[in-house]
Design a protein that fits this description.
globular; alpha/beta; TIM Barrel; 321 residues; two-stranded antiparallel sheet
Length: 321
C-alpha cells in the first residue's frame, strides 16, 4: 500500500525539489519514485507512483495538494451545472503522463516482478469533488445522494466512464493488474452502498473482466460491506486492518482472493511485535491459495526503513517454510 513515500530518504530528497503534482505529471520522476522501493527491498510487485485524484483534472476539476492539509478542490462539484460541465475524455489525452510512466517502469522490471496500476473508485472521487477535499462527515456527499439522486447518478456515471477507460489504458500501457481504491466508502452503511455505489463498481469490474484485466477491489472501514463488495466484482478483495483476515474471508466467500491486512502502525513496533502480528495474519490463511500479503492501508511516513525490510523477510521466510 503506497510503497513510495516519505519514509524513504531518496523520496524525501526529490520532494525537496519538486511538488507532488510536478512529480505526478513527470513520467521520468514518477517512474523513478516507483522503482525506489523496488530497488530498496525484495518486493513481489511494483505499484505505479500516481494519485487517485489525477483523473479529476482531466474532467475539469482544479486540484492542488496543500502541505500539511492534503488535496484541495478549487471548484467543488455541488450543482447540476457543475456536473454537466465535467468532461469525459480519453486517458491518452488527459493522463498520458501516467501511461508513459507505466511503460517506462514495465520496460525496466519486465520479467522480474509484475506491475500494478490503480485508480480511485467513483464514490471516493465523487466525495472529494463534492466536499472540496477530505471530510469526516461527508454531509455534502450524502446530501446530494439523498436529495438529488439523479444528479448524483449523473456524476457517478461520468466518473465510472472515466475510471474504466483509465484502468483499461493502464493495462494496455503495461500494468498486469489494476487496483480500485474506494478509500472513503466505509462512511456508508450496507443499504446506501447497495443503492448508491455497487452498480457503478459492478460496471467497472465487468468492463475489466471482459477485457481480461485482473483486478483488486479495496476499501477502508468495509467490514460490513465485504459481501456487497464481492458481489460488485474484483478478482481479489483488499481488506483493511480492522477486520481479522479469516473473518473477512468468510464474509467474502470462496472463489475470490484476498489482500491484506497488517496495521501500518505495527511497522513502528519492536521487531518481536512485528513478527508476531505478521505471523498471526499468515497463520489465518491456513494454506488457502489466493492471498496477497499487504498492509491494511498506506504505509506511514514515520515508518523505519529497517522495519519494512524486516517485514519483507518475515513474509518470505514464512512462505518458504
Amino acid at each position: 500500500m503506497r510503497q513510495a513515500g516519505r519514509y524513504l530518504a531518496e523520496y524525501r530528497k526529490l520532494r525537496e525539489k519538486y511538488s507532488l503534482l510536478d512529480m505526478f505529471h513527470s513520467p521520468e520522476l514518477a517512474a523513478k519514485v516507483t522503482l525506489q522501493p523496488v530497488t530498496a527491498f525484495e518486493l513481489d510487485a511494483a505499484i505505479i507512483f500516481a494519485d487517485i485524484l489525477l483523473p479529476l483534472e482531466g474532467m475539469g476539476i482544479k486540484l492542488e495538494f496543500v502541505e500539511k492539509e492534503g488535496p484541495r478542490i478549487g471548484n467543488p462539484v455541488r450543482a447540476a451545472a457543475a456536473v454537466a460541465a465535467l468532461k469525459v475524455r480519453p486517458p491518452s489525452e488527459t493522463l498520458a503522463y501516467v501511461l508513459e510512466a507505466l511503460r517506462a517502469v514495465r520496460s525496466e522490471i519486465d520479467g522480474k516482478i509484475p506491475l500494478i496500476g490503480f485508480a480511485g473508485a467513483p464514490f471516493t472521487l465523487a466525495s472529494y469533488a463534492i466536499e472540496g477535499g477530505s471530510s469526516r462527515s461527508f454531509l455534502r456527499t450524502k446530501g446530494m445522494m439523498y436529495e438529488s439522486p439523479e444528479l448524483f447518478d449523473q456524476l457517478m456515471k461520468k466518473l465510472t466512464d472515466t475510471i474504466s477507460s483509465f484502468l483499461l489504458a493502464q493495462a494496455a500501457a503495461g500494468a498486469q493488474v489494476v487496483q480500485l481504491f474506494d478509500s472513503w466508502v466505509g462512511c456508508l452503511g450496507p443499504a446506501d452502498y447497495r443503492d448508491y455505489v455497487q452498480p457503478y463498481m459492478r460496471a467497472i469490474f465487468q468492463t475489466l473482466k471482459h477485457a481480461g484485466v485482473p483486478s483488486i477491489h479495496f476499501g477502508t472501514g468495509t467490514a460490513d460491506l465485504l459481501p456487497l463488495m464481492r458481489q460488485a466484482g474484483g478478482d481479489v478483495i483488499g481488506v483493511d486492518w480492522r477486520t481479522p483476515l479469516d473473518t473477512a474471508w468468510e464474509r467474502i466467500g470462496p472463489g475470490t482472493g484476498i489482500q491484506g491486512n497488517l496495521d501500518p502502525a505495527v511497522l513502528i513496533a519492536p521487531q518481536k511485535v512485528l513478527a508476531q502480528r505478521t505471523g498471526e495474519i499468515l497463520g489465518k490463511i491456513q494454506g488457502r491459495p489466493g492471498h496477497i500479503f499487504n498492509l491494511g492501508h498506506g504505509i506511514l511516513p514515520s515508518t523505519p526503513v529497517d522495519s519494512v525490510r524486516s517485514l519483507v523477510d518475515i513474509v518470505h521466510n514464512y512462505q518458504a517454510n
